[in-house]
């Protein structure tokens, strides 16, 4: 029994000796064989070796041959308005358009300009183009080439819509024979919401015609000579 145990111990010893010999024989001796089994360690040690080799004299080099020199996406230039109230959509309160003639420029039109220009945000005087001359003392005169008097109100409306529709809340159209109380008008408009569609003025006076009782009344239209107030939404 004792001999059997001794033999088994000898066998274990021989097997262990053989395994140790084989392990020492196949174990790589060069450090590169070890690091190749771990790529991350290889790259790190390579970088450390490069840093130690070049030291402070190392200068990085940029490879720009395969990279575009300009941005692929062009940046659009944003055009900003000149005034902040234009960008914010803030409007002035009142624009006044006065329809006048050459004969009344220095009298009636000038009187309206002196009494109302400092109370409103902007005032313009509209006459026919063939009546325009260079020696007018009054400024802000607009002339139309179409001299037909019945079409002048429509030309005035088109001019306002093309140039000032988005700049003012209300527009007053009046002839030079009308009286404009600009102070009271501004006070009245200040109590009206700009969200309302405003068409305000003195109803056009008409008389009942017994011969034509079915003739439509003009009372639903305002008299231009007394002045008509329109909101920008109209």
Looking at this protein, list some descriptive labels:
alpha/beta; Chondroitin sulfate synthase 2; 234 residues; six-stranded mixed β-sheet; rod-shaped
Could you walk me through the main structural features you see in this protein, from its secondary elements to its overall organization?
There is one protein chain. The protein has helices spanning 2-26, 31-35, 39-54, 84-88, 105-116, 152-163, 182-189, and strands spanning 92-99, 122-128, 141-144, 168-175, 199-201, 228-231. It is of the alpha/beta class and 234 residues long. Strands 3-2-1-4-6-5 form a six-stranded mixed beta sheet, with helices on both faces. The mean pLDDT is 75. It has seven helices and six strands; from the N terminus they run ααααβαββαβαββ. α5 (105-116) links the parallel β1 and β2 (122-128). Helices cover 35% and strands 15% of the residues. The longest helix is centred in the first third of the chain and has 25 residues, at 2-26. The chain crosses the membrane at residues 12-28. Its main location: membrane. Residues 92-232 form the Fringe-like glycosyltransferase domain. This is Chondroitin sulfate synthase 2. InterPro entries: CS_glycosyltransferase, Fringe-like_glycosylTrfase.
In short:
The protein has 234 residues and is of the alpha/beta class. It is built from seven helices and six strands.
Q: What does the radius of gyration come to?
A: 48 Å
Question: Percentage of helical residues?
Answer: 25-40%
* Residue-averaged pLDDT: 75
Strand order of the largest sheet: 3-2-1-4-6-5
Which secondary structure elements does this structure contain, and how are they paired or packed?
Elements: H1 2-26, H2 31-35, H3 39-54, H4 84-88, E1 92-99, H5 105-116, E2 122-128, E3 141-144, H6 152-163, E4 168-175, H7 182-189, E5 199-201, E6 228-231
Parallel strand pairs: 1-2, 1-4, 2-3
Antiparallel strand pairs: 4-6, 5-6
